[in-house]
Amino acid sequence: MRPEYKDLVKKAQEAKKRAFAPYSKFHVGAALLTSRGKIYTGCNVEISTYALTICAERTAIFKAISEGDRQFKAIAVISDDPGYTPPCGSCRQVLMDLAGNIDFLMVNGKGHVEILKMRELLPHAFGKKNLERTKKKHR
Ligand code: THU
Q1: Buried residues in 5-23 as b, exposed as e (16+ CB within 10 A)
Q2: Measuring CA to CA, which residue among 58, 74, 82, 91 is closest to residue 9?
Q3: Which of 24, 28, 122 is the best mutation target for the ligand 1 pocket, counting ligand atoms within 8 Å of the beta carbon and taking the most?
Q4: Is the CB of 59 under 6 A from ligand 1?
Q5: For residues 99 and 71, what is the distance between their CA atoms, to the nearest angstrom?
Q6: Would you say the CB of residue 46 lies under 6 angstroms from ligand 1?
Q7: What architecture is domain 3-137?
Q8: 124 alpha carbon to ligand 1 midpoint, in Å?
Q9: How far apart are CA 134 and CA 16, in angstroms?
Q10: 31: number of CA atoms within 13 Å, CB side?
């Protein structure tokens, strides 16, 4: 694995320690790599009304966008699950919209990494292009 991805996995592991998950007790950490080599971390933050909970992946990417970064290379995600942690449907849409076809690194309990492209995780994604097509039609 590329050295920059090794560091990304380490940062995701560290971020997991900051998870706020008093309801599910499912701790998740994420680390997002920008094209210029900066890393934004994120953890899941749970809310008592459950639905307002935000996943680690979305925390990381919203942090990055709000700090002005728009170009990304990869995101690593880890939980306490001995297996791999795939992103939820909401995170797939958010990552595809804001980061595009980046590498998604899933890390299992043994520290093994499986890398998938976002397009594999969300084939036939809805996106900006769909909205633009209908706008043209109604002009
Ligand atoms: N969760 C994440 O943060 N990322 C994932 O990829 C899967 C699920 C969180 C949301 C919630 O706090 C907990 O894990 C259980 O679903």
Answers
A1: beebbbbbbebbeebebee
A2: 74
A3: 28
A4: no
A5: 7
A6: yes
A7: 3-Layer(aba) Sandwich (3.40)
A8: 23
A9: 41
A10: 23
Atom 14, ligand 1: residue with shortest CA distance: 26
**CA-proximal residue: ligand 1, atom 5 (nearest):** 87
Tokens 């899941």 belong to 44
Contact of 23 with 48, CB cutoff 8 Å:
yes
**Rounded CA gap, 23 and 90, in Å?**
19
121 close to ligand 1 (CB < 6 Angstrom): no
Q: What is the pLDDT along the chain (139 residues), one digit of tens a residue?
A: 888 999 999 999 999 999 999 999 999 999 999 999 999 999 999 999 999 999 999 999 999 999 999 999 999 999 999 999 999 999 999 999 999 999 999 999 899 999 999 999 999 999 999 999 887 766 5
CA dist., res. 23 & res. 57, Å (int):
18
Q: Is 26 in the pocket of ligand 1 (CB under 6 A)?
A: yes
